[in-house]
Queue: 4 jobs
Job 1
Amino acid sequence: MTDTAPRPTLEAVAARAGVSRATVSRVVNGGDGVREPLVERVRRAVEELGYVPNQAARSLVTRRHYAVAVVVAEPETRVFADPFFALQLRGISKELTAHDNQLVLLLTEGRDDHARVGRYLAGGHVDGALVFSLHLDDPLPELIQRAGVPTVFGGRPGWSDGTTDVVYVDSDNRGGAREAVRHLVGLGRTRVAHITGPLDQTSAADRLDGYRDVMGDADPKLVVRGDFTPAGGERAMRELLGRCPDVDAVFAANDLTASGALRVLREGGRRVPGDVAVIGFDDMLPVAEQTDPPLTTVRQDIEEMGRLMARLLLRDLDRSSGGATPAGVVLPTTLIRRASA
């Protein structure tokens, strides 16, 4: 058995800094009204003593848990296989960590999980929630509204309940899709197809709308439904070649879909971009730079989307910061040209 050194207390920090216990409490809990020289003395004493604030006591003072739930409306098999989620979570984690907040990850495998998430959020364990990858029939928005926790959504909301002040962060999916399809048309391609994402998600629906903005009178057989996965891209590409063997360009709803489509084209002896030009969406470097050939794609800043979601939520939680939180933020996209188109 070894003796454990006692944890430094507020009183010990106050004595080292030569200030009152109340002053130390205000400084370590982020309170106002302490002159900067005293703040520096307290911080120096905290560092010298290795003082760690008691989270329970801190919560009593600030009425905050310094924890944020990140709710991903997808099963774990999808979340851990798709680099999109890793990038978004990295952005969220960086922003929360920079402000001394903990990330609590909640995934939904089925309806029972939705109810569990709703109960957790209503139980007062976290200060707010960041929610993304919602589907149109998802019960989470209603459960979150009932829980009464401040929330920022990733992606344009697709439900219509009369709510106009929903805070969300999205990319210009429709504009990015238009730019991709215009590029393909500009290359002289006349049979431009689209492999969609799951159309119960607004990002996929908006990208389909962007395709139709440019190819309004295109053969309906040139649109095939996918699911944002490589297997879905393979399946859709085979269906597309069966329907329209003269297809000469494909706009895929995301990079993973495009990677599956490229495999099928290669297996079928189609040259890319000679016979069929291919463009994706996301610009996830682990995917886009490693396809054969490297993928032309629409870049959205996925990590920045995550950071911005967290930043907006923390701004809402910090009532003292002042200023209104914008209802919706849409980030621009950029076409990144590589060898596939």
Job 2
Amino acid sequence: MTVIVEPHPRRRRSRTAAVFGTAALALIFSVGGVVGTATADTVTDTITVGTNPAGVAISPDGTRAYVTNLSGSSVSVINTTTTPPTTIADVTVGTQPLAVAISPDGTRAYTANNSSNSVSVINTTTAPPARIADVTVGRNPQGVAFSPDGTRAYVTNTGGSSVSVINTTTAPPITIADVTVGSGPYAVAFTPDGTRAYVSNFDSSSVSVINTTTTPPITIDTITVGSQPYGVAITPDGAYAYTANHISGSVSVIAIDKAPTLTGVPPAGVVGQTYSHAFTVTGEPAPAVTVTAGALPAGFTLSPAGVLSGTPIAAGTSAFTVTAANGIGTPATLDVTLTVAPAAPGTPGGRPVWIARADLRIRQLIFPPVPTY
């Protein structure tokens, strides 16, 4: 049911642990060789665990794997540093543990116990690891994930269309909120900055987006994806979320909302000369850029994409504020000071230019108005 890549492979080539729900075995795969070789991935070890293993997670240092045994109501702990890897402990947890997550500091493992409506907390620092608490959550918990800072654990409750939020810093940990999401929430994943949690809703074929920065956290968006999404994962740069859609045989890719940023220092302009400067603007959806204080120099315009352009008609210095906003987070502001220099004599926008015609009459070439010196 779950495939996890070991973060810090040891001794042998990098391994992937695949745990299948119908067999009481954990299979270790050796990822084959160098790109371009014909060597196929091979099973290098088979590890005996509990009954009906369902979920697996690797400790941050890669030395342990934790496997939930659905029918055994236990978690098998595997020492990944030995050859072959060996099961070194079985920790009793709640009824029908499905998913397991390890805290960012590696000191705790949380299991979502589907039939006992609870999360078991395992202290991973003791020998052997020990169950130290059970936290009551919603109906039929299915998935669990830690926030990047480790202070919260989010648990999907498939029977309650909700996500339970656990404060992991208290002793014992406690549920502090239940967030309403779509029907049949299955998995949950955090953006790298921890400000959003994405929840795959199996029964409603959607993804709920939770704003984790509010008190309590709230669902701020619901996105339609493929039929019956199971898993959800977010790219390391936080740009996209991917969902595995069980029935439609597809993966949906979601562009993740991002608060705007705005940077750039416009160069000086010259009277009568065409000018263009593009501010660097980021955000999802694309922010709209406007002037929110002060005024642009005469002859300039600012596009919603953040392009400052025009033909200046007067020398001087102008101060104004540019703002980028897209409805996500706090708008980005930038205070700008722009100088326009006088045109050089003899050029358009400079002093008048006098020429002598062949018929000896003197004529003035007409150019745009110039400032008074």
Job 3
Amino acid sequence: MLNLDHRRAAADLLRAAELDRAPIEPLTARWPEVDVEDAYRIQLDNVRRRCAEGARVRGHKVGLSSPVMQRMMGVGEPDYGHLLDDMVLAADRPIPVARYCAPRIEVEVGYVLGARLPGRGCTEADVLAATEYLVPALELIDSRIRDWRIALADTIADNASSAGVVLGEARVRPGEIDPADVEAVLHRDGAEVARGNTSAVLGDPTTAVAWLARTVAEFGVVLEAGHLVLPGSCTRAVDVDPGSVFRAEFAGLGHVTARFE
């Protein structure tokens, strides 16, 4: 584990990299002893710092919850990050690519909670009972670690490589579709670039949300009513370039579009 000074130094490096759009070398290269608990505490340090500057927690995300994303990133287990209110991006406005280091797009079904989730012991039934509606989502991920050379501790410390989310207009209650079996297709500039099924997310994205509620409880974090939860991508992540237009279509759940400049 890292000592307190090293954790603070790591948080400072990541925050500066995000503000300056200047990726840093992996934390695991600088501090080989960094572990998962260190990484979550580093993440929380920067979340608290941003909230002190005026941001508000809007929800949470699960990352690396599908085999395709774990293989792509070279890790073997999920992680989680925070979604802040300034990370919720408008679908009708182009997103400046220059705001990020190395952005990518992921396809997800978002869960919007109508009630607080229990922490320890949270089940899939608890999640479905507390979910007010499901929403089509495109998550924007980014890495403040140079060239995406991340180990698990690197991405966790870096707020699970989260950067933003665009939501579609559809609002569907969990009983109206099966969130464990939604086909999704991602197009870039009109051409299909990825396709998947939500069953790729731990077998059922609801399982990922329940895992998240149990995991964050260990750090005193609660998933509250009104929070948006992203359970993880059901397709591979796709690189973003200026001028690209992405559209994800979900069977039974509508679509969502993100434009970049």
Job 4
Amino acid sequence: MKALHIITGLGIGGAEQQLRLLLRHLPVRCDVVTLTNPGAVAEGLRADGVRVRDLGMRSNRDLGAVPRLARLIRRGSYDLVHTHLYRACVYGRIAARLAGTTVVATEHSLGRAEIEGRPLTRGTRELYLRTERLGAATVAVSDTVAGRLRDWGVPASRIHTVPNGIDVAAFRFDSAQRCATRALLGLPGTAFVVGGVGRLVTGKRFDLLIRAVAALPGVWLVLAGDGPEAVPLRVLAARLGVADRVRFLGECGTAGPAPAVPAVLGAVDVFVSASREESFGLAVVEALAAGLPVVHAACPAVEDLPEGRVPGTTRIGSVPGTSDPTKELTAVLRHHVESGVRRLPPPPAVDRYDIRLSSRRLMDVYAQATDTATAIPTERAHP
């Protein structure tokens, strides 16, 4: 089988990093097309030996992208097209139908009121649903997302849940690496350190972490990630008088000076994900694999599992509007500080999210989608 993956962009982000990791484990020949922004993940994919093309879309309404994609699909003689992220799903499904090629889409970032961090509008939803019908299957990264798709009216028979995956072994705790990373980041050897990972955007609510740490003398904070909120968060830390106890690492896992995410997680003592809304919560799973106690708000990766399956996690904000989120987070972190530093065995639930299992599940979706397309021939259309 030969597959083409189409994604909106290849800057540092959860879906983009997940695609790179997945391609390392799929037993399929894969090429990648990015509609725009061939960033750091594109460089990483090329280093892995994956062919990456930049379609060079000029705007969200660059309709010429459709025939360009269709020609590329046809010339590549792909057996299957797999799309990722909203814009790529819309344009990619149309182009694949025009090229007469089976298409599967993964829904990475569908929230209750947002998609990929942007407000959901009636027009956004309608365009999504109209183009969704052109595909053979839609993959949800969590049961929560699968439920949202059903609520939108996507037939249950077309939805397949394939959870995001991680390389579990890469996050195994290493005490020597912990010491080296702390020294690199200028963290005191005995300090209690809170960690956060993700794009620095409003919805991730990293401001809560800064406010909580400001209320806990002697506690440090490490934030791995970059984004439009980087400057406002630095200003907040300075205004609260904790700039010297907060480390902003920028993007990790690239060619820059910052350590990779597994090393960062090894250097901290508790992980916090305060996101207002998530479709999965990949950073939480990575933290659990690193043996960290986790404090989280929205996190389908944990919430979709039976209660008690993920020890070491504490949920905050489960009853919206009943408490001050900063005070609640501060109280939970204070309890962790008073309990002392501890490393936990990764919970068995982490194995559910092993990337090898995710790749096998996705291959089952590919097989079913291509079998269905073969059973019901469609006329090949040309732009």
